[in-house]
Amino acid sequence: MASAQGKTVIVTGAAGGLGKAIATTFLAAGANVAICDVVPHRIAEVIQEWDKPYGDRFITRPTNVADEAAVQSLIDDTVAKFGRLDVLVNAAGIMDGFEPAGDLSKEKWDRVLNVNLNGPFLTTKAAIAQFEKQENPGGVIINIGSIASVHGFKSGLAYTVSKAGLMALTKNTAGYYGDKGIYSIGLLLGAMDTNITDAFAHGMHMEAYQKIQGSSTPFRPELQVPLASVAKYCVFLTDKDIAPSSNGSCIMFNKNWPEA
Description:
Layout: E1 8-11, H1 17-28, E2 32-37, H2 40-54, E3 58-62, H3 68-82, E4 87-90, H4 106-133, E5 139-146, H5 157-177, E6 182-189, H6 206-213, H7 227-237, H8 242-246, E7 250-253
Parallel strand pairs: 1-2, 1-4, 2-3, 4-5, 5-6, 6-7
Helix pairs in contact: 1-7, 3-4, 4-5
């Protein structure tokens, strides 16, 4: 596994699921890590689990990524603890219930867009300000996208739009800041066994879900992308030689589902 020795990394939505796997992998690779989440009991569990092996190399903060002041506090606390910021991984995300436009409430649209798109914008904005002003300027932003970033009919409308927007955020940021040593990279993930699907507990639009399932190669459990594989790839992408070459890339990481 690539080394992240001495780097400081923020991972959002990281008290469970994919975010936690990414944060744990960075810690194992030698990084200092700050995580945020909005679920208090998950944060408490992480603190208990990581305290002995990682000691003072991590901090946790309860942070709503759609709250600009809270995001800035996360950045400030991270830099106060570790001295700088090198990597931001935007892993926080929520799913919709597969609702199409005609059946999607404004409330759910706002909720999904706030977490999945407004949040990464706010964290990116704050991270860039820190990357630019610190000694030895520069940094890497990894945005956790989805096959829905490019496939328009693999989820509900709100999730699809949010992930397409995240891909645009990735590319625009890469274009403007790449010559300043700030690199922006997207991972477009396939199906995963992660807590993002908690939203389904509140119901699914079954007609839309069945149409989506019938529109391509049927999903099978063995096509799930392992969390550990994504986490290792995130560490790899922050390598000083790899990040510049990957700037602006939105990389499919999906076990070839849907088929290319």
